[in-house]
Write a structure and sequence with these properties.
Blueprint (H helix, E strand, L loop, with lengths): L2 H16 L3 H21 L2 H34 L2 H35 L6 H30 L4 E4 L2 E4 L2 H5 L2 H31 L4 H36 L1 H7 L6 E2 L3 E2 L17 E2 L2 H7 L5 E2 L14 H29 L7 H9 L3 H15 L4 E3 L3 E2 L10 H31 L11
Antiparallel strand pairs: 1-2, 3-6, 4-5, 7-8
Helix pairs in contact: 1-3, 1-14, 2-3, 2-5, 2-7, 3-4, 3-8, 3-14, 4-5, 5-7, 7-8, 7-12, 7-13, 8-11, 11-13
Length: about 450
């Protein structure tokens, strides 16, 4: 295989693995801060016990997430040198701000939070965790601003074969980027809420600390219902941006081969590229794509045949990944709605069958989050910077396929070991409650 293909496999492997940790960190920082704030407001010791329990899982997730993310930036220079030359003047700024400001604040204040138990007032301690949550969100914002620019470049000019930023304001205010931020954050909150409900369900099934985990389950359910509504809304906004600015991605996601007014939506079956027909008409929603993409049932949707073959993305993967992601999104809304009813009617311990479902559902938001990135990044191909730089032209020219293959094997081994360690530590600390001490601070 070529350097480009191996580098793409390597970057995808590392990025998808790293993103297993990012959403949970984003969500748990907010949830722990909320729980500790409830303790400050109510004085109820159960909330500080909750905060201490979930913070242990947060710290495990945060530590391994940091390790897995560092290598991504090295790959820009080592595997994607031509890309770095082309966009370095633009891409370097948000990455530098993310590292020197957002991540610095996040890591500093999370350390301060760990070592300031009983050393500061309870209100100050809660404020420290809110700072961690804000810094985590800010870190994600800068990364997604950079990625959003790659999806829809704005405020630049090409000088000497390199992209140079002409308007930092245009970079900061790209609607595509902010809708992407909204989508990723809401998905992170869905994942966190289901993680909290799933772990709480395990303890409720074992009748362990019922008061604390009933409250945790209720918080997760309420948070999850709101986040599930938001993620569907954000997905709709994202679809509009794709339709307006990445027509090839829309055509690939919908397997839309021919330009068509009132284009139908194929639920599952892959349409025939020549006839655009399906054997199962029940799986076709008339005018569906036009309505979803443009909110107009008679809108014209450009087909893949209107683009040069070398500008077309892969089709089968984004087509299937998009449908599974959307199906999971609506499943989360249903499960969170039922969870809210069960939790707020105080019937959690009696609904053992539903608790088992929620335990099984822990992994589904992880799958949905990964599918979202698969749709976004594979659907963007063959461009690494949409419309400006092709992925094939972005790979380094001074390394060999053997170099990339060796490092890829090394990453798989190391990251596989980290995955085992993460699962072990999360499982260990998710089961332990006996060492949680009631904590009061002046």
């Amino acid at each position: 295989m070529s350097v480009e293909i191996l580098s793409r496999i390597q970057f995808a492997t590392v990025a998808l693995f790293h993103f297993l940790f990012v959403p949970l960190t984003l969500g748990l920082t907010v949830m722990v801060a909320f729980m500790e704030t409830r303790y400050v407001v109510t004085g109820n010791e159960v909330y500080i016990r909750m905060a201490k329990f979930w913070s242990r899982l947060l710290l495990v997730n945060f530590a391994i997430g940091v390790v897995t993310g560092i290598t991504l930036e090295f790959q820009f220079g080592m595997n994607w040198a031509e890309y770095s030359k082309f966009v370095g003047d633009i891409f370097g700024a948000p990455l530098a701000i993310e590292a020197t400001v957002a991540f610095f604040l996040e890591s500093t204040f999370i350390g301060l939070w760990i070592f300031s138990w009983k050393r500061v007032s309870k209100g100050v301690h809660a404020a420290i965790m809110w700072t961690v949550a804000s810094a985590s969100t800010l870190s994600a914002v800068w990364i997604l601003l950079a990625n959003g620019w790659m999806q829809r470049p704005r405020g630049y000019e090409i000088v000497g074969g390199h992209a140079q930023l002409t308007s930092f304001g245009a970079f900061l205010t790209t609607p595509y980027s902010w809708i992407k931020i909204f989508h990723v954050l809401s998905a992170a909150y869905v994942l966190t809420s289901f993680f909290i409900m799933g772990v709480s369900a395990i303890h409720l099934l074992r009748k362990n600390e019922p008061e604390m985990f009933k409250r945790s389950f209720r918080i997760g359910a309420t948070f999850g219902l709101a986040a599930s509504v938001l993620v569907i809304f954000a997905g709709d906004l994202s679809g509009r941006q794709v339709a307006d600015h990445q027509p090839t991605k829309l055509a690939a996601i919908e397997a839309q081969w021919q330009t068509e007014k009132g284009a139908p939506f194929y639920v599952l079956e892959f349409p025939n590229p020549k006839t655009q027909s399906n054997a199962i008409e029940a799986l076709k929603i008339p005018n569906g794509v036009s309505l979803l993409a443009y909110h107009n049932p008679n809108a014209v949707v450009r087909g893949l045949d209107s683009f040069p073959p070398n500008d077309r993305p892969p089709i089968i993967v984004p087509f299937l990944a998009f449908r599974l992601m959307v199906a999971l999104g609506f499943l989360f809304l249903l499960l969170a709605f039922i969870a809210c009813i069960v939790a707020w009617r105080d019937k959690t311990e009696l609904r053992r069958g539903f608790l088992k479902v929620m335990v099984a559902a822990i992994l589904l938001p992880y799958l949905a989050a990964e599918l979202g990135w698969v749709v976004a990044e594979i659907g963007r191909q063959p461009w690494i910077v949409y419309g400006l730089l092709r992925t094939a032209d972005a790979a380094s020219r001074s390394i060999t396929p053997t170099d990339v293959l060796i490092s890829l094997i090394g990453f798989v081994i190391i990251y596989g070991s980290l995955a085992v360690a993460d699962v072990y530590l999360l499982s260990k600390y998710a089961r332990r409650t006996e060492d949680l001490q009631e904590t009061t601070r002046g």
